[in-house]
Specification:
two-stranded antiparallel ribbon, alpha+beta, six-stranded mixed sheet
Length: about 180
C-alpha cells in the first residue's frame, strides 16, 4: 500500500492514518511512519476534544466555557445571518441566544480532518423559542426539533471559525404552527 493511502495498525492495535507527505519519503523507516501517524492522531484528538468541549459547554448553557474554546479573532457565521468577528461579538451572540432560546443539541456526531485543523458536526437541535427575535415570528415558548450542522476551523487548539447551517423555513414553520 503506498504512503498516504491507507492506515497502519499501531502497537496498541489502534488504526492510525498513514501520513501524506508533501515530498516523497521513499526511505522512511517504520519508526518515522509510526511517529507521523501518532502526531496526526494527536492533532485529530486535540481538535475532537476542543469541539466536544465546545458542545458540552453549549448544552450546559455555559457561554464562558464556549468562549474558552474559541480564539480571540473567532469568525462566527450563522445561518441566514452576517459574520461576527472577534470574541466580543461572539459573546454578545451567546448572551442574546441565552435570552431568546433554550436549546439542547442531541445526537451530536463530530468529524475531524487528519491535520486537526478542520471539523464538522451534525446534530439535532431540541429548542424552545423564549423571546421574539426581530423579523421572526412571535415567541410564545414554542418547542422545535431541527437538524443542523456546523463547520469549524481550528488553530492552536482553539476554534477560529464556526459556520452553522439549519433549515430556517423548517424552524419558522415549527414555531408558527
Amino acid at each position: 500500500m503506498p504512503c498516504g493511502s491507507g492506515h497502519l495498525l499501531s502497537q496498541t492495535n489502534r488504526i492510525l492514518p498513514i501520513p501524506v507527505w508533501t515530498t516523497p519519503h521513499r526511505h522512511a523507516t517504520m519508526r518515522q511512519i509510526l511517529h507521523e501517524a501518532r502526531m496526526t492522531q494527536s492533532a485529530r484528538t486535540s481538535a475532537l476534544d476542543t469541539v466536544t468541549a465546545y458542545y458540552a459547554a453549549f448544552n450546559a448553557e455555559n457561554p464562558t466555557g464556549m468562549l474558552a474554546c474559541v480564539t480571540n479573532d473567532i469568525e462566527h457565521r450563522v445561518n441566514e445571518g452576517g459574520i461576527r468577528l472577534g470574541r466580543d461579538k461572539f459573546s454578545e451572540f451567546c448572551a442574546h441566544m441565552g435570552v431568546s432560546y433554550r436549546e439542547q443539541l442531541k445526537d451530536i456526531e463530530i468529524f475531524v480532518n487528519d491535520a486537526g485543523t478542520r471539523a464538522a458536526a451534525e446534530f439535532i437541535v431540541h429548542g424552545e423559542y423564549l423571546k421574539t427575535d426581530p423579523g421572526l415570528p412571535e415567541a410564545k415558548g414554542q418547542k422545535y426539533i431541527l437538524p443542523a450542522g456546523s463547520f469549524f476551523d481550528l488553530k492552536d487548539g482553539k476554534i477560529s471559525r464556526i459556520t452553522t447551517f439549519y433549515n430556517l423555513n423548517d424552524w419558522i414553520a415549527q414555531v408558527s404552527a
